[in-house]
Amino acid sequence: MLTRRHVLLGSLAAGTAAHTQWPIGPALAQSPIQLQLFVPAAPGGGWDQTARTMEQVLRAEKLITGAQITNVGGAGGTVGLPQFTNQWKGRPNALMVSGMVMVGAIIANRAPVKLSQTTPIARLTGEFLALVVPASSPFKTAKDFIEALKVDPAKVPVCGGSAGGSDHILLGLMAKSVGVAPAKLAYVPYAGGGQAVAALLGNQVAAGISGYGEFSEQVKAGKLRLLAISADTRQPGIEAPTLKEQGIEIELFNWRGVFAPPNVNADQRAAMIGLIETMAGSPAWLAEVKKRDWTPILLTGDAYAGFLQEETARIEATLKDLGLAA
Questions:
Q1: How far apart are CA 35 and CA 63, in angstroms?
Q2: Is pLDDT larger for residue 194 or for residue 41?
Q3: Beta 187-189 vs 158-160: how paired, if at all?
Q4: Nearest to 145 by CA among 192, 169, 190, 177
Q5: What is the pLDDT of residue 162?
Q6: What is the Cα–Cα distance from 209 to 170, expressed in whole angstroms?
Q7: H-helix or E-strand containing 80?
Q8: What is the tens place of the pLDDT at every residue in 258-316?
Q9: What pTM, to 2 d.p., does this model score?
Q10: What are the Cα distances from residue 175, in Å, to 134, 228, 242, 319?
Q11: I need a labelling partner for 249 at 20 to 30 A (CA). Which of 37, 142, 229, 237 fits?
């Protein structure tokens, strides 16, 4: 009996064969495919790690025969995106790995090619952010931090990653939610997490925002105090409330997802969604997610496309408030 998975993968394999003109007969119509993964970033980063983990899991689950990974880095993914939308157009066996950072980069760089020109397939994982302060800080809770921002945001310097990135966006959202003008914030961007930690330990800044992993060792050592996380719920093994628990109605994940190129048909899109749903529910994927401290936040198809529209609007408004977008 053919299952939905067989039908979907059969559609994908057949579409792949038509595109690549590989020899394929009826017996191979339901076989796993050769996947092409496009990473609009240099090797080693989060998107690249996601692509390589996908390849590993899809191979282990015998859902693909192999994968070719292409890296094209630069400008938050906006260098590679045009290549994916133009040169990879119509490929039914191709996926681009990207995420929230690209949404912001497209807006901030006024990039001519938009994510809306791709075919959204699935949101996979997210990394919540952490708000920390030096151990000697007078701020004991996120409420304390927010109250200080209300008094004079210029006197509360906060460090994080690049200007306009997820850390900066979270700070802007927090400020706006309590009536503080985001453009008045004192944000100190650093290229690497190590520099941010050094600034916090040296009391050069009042607080820091980044992925929890950047701060976890210093938090466990008692050198930094974790005030809040930006997740939707408390996270196992992390002794900190969410922002929402402390009256700050903000939730933010630095999410990663996958996109098919433009001009794939409905059956090919459905096949890719089925492939990713099967992967995301597999023990091998769940084990990798746990090992890497990724939060699984699977969202597929039309629901994912709707999320992207809302997320783009939210990020664009925040970057405008921060003075980083027109």
A1: 10
A2: 41
A3: parallel
A4: 177
A5: 84
A6: 8
A7: none
A8: 999 999 999 999 999 999 999 999 999 999 999 988 999 999 999 999 999 999 999 99
A9: 0.83
A10: 20, 15, 16, 13
A11: 237
Across the range 4-8, mean pLDDT stands at: 45
SS3 175: helix
- Cα 139 to chain center, whole Å? 29
| The two structure tokens encoding residue 232 | 């939707």
Kindly list the domain boundaries of the chain, sorted by start residue: 4-126+255-321, 127-246
Cα separation, 296 vs 288, in Å, equals 11
Give CA–CA dist 215/272, Å, rounded.
36
Tokens representing 182 are 């985001």
Give the burial string for 83-93 (b: 16+ CB within 10 Å, else e).
ebbeebeebbb
Give the SS3 label for residue 182: helix
Within the chain, how many helices (H) and strands (E) appear? Answer: 11, 10
Q: Residue 51 carries which DSSP code?
A: H
CB 318 within 8 A of CB 163: no
CA pair distance 131, 146, nearest whole angstrom = 11
127-246: which CATH topology?
D-Maltodextrin-Binding Protein; domain 2 (3.40.190)
Question: What is the C-alpha to C-alpha distance for residues 317 and 162, in angstroms, rounded to an integer?
Answer: 18
Yes or no: domain 4-126+255-321 corresponds to CATH 3.40.190.80: no
C-alpha–C-alpha distance, residues 65 and 16, integer Å: 13
Position 87 confidence tier, pLDDT thresholds 50, 70, 90: very high
DSSP string, 244-298: GGGT-----EEEEEEEEPTT--HHHHHHHHHHHHHHHTSHHHHHHHHHTTPEEEE
Q: Which two tokens stand for residue 36?
A: 């092409």
Would you mind telling me the total number of residues written for the chain in this entry?
326
At residue 91, the 3 state secondary structure works out as coil
Q: Which of 188, 34, 20 is nearest to 88 (CA)?
A: 20
Q: Do domains 4-126+255-321 and 127-246 have the same CATH topology?
A: yes
Other CB atoms within 10 Å distance of the CB of residue 257: 29
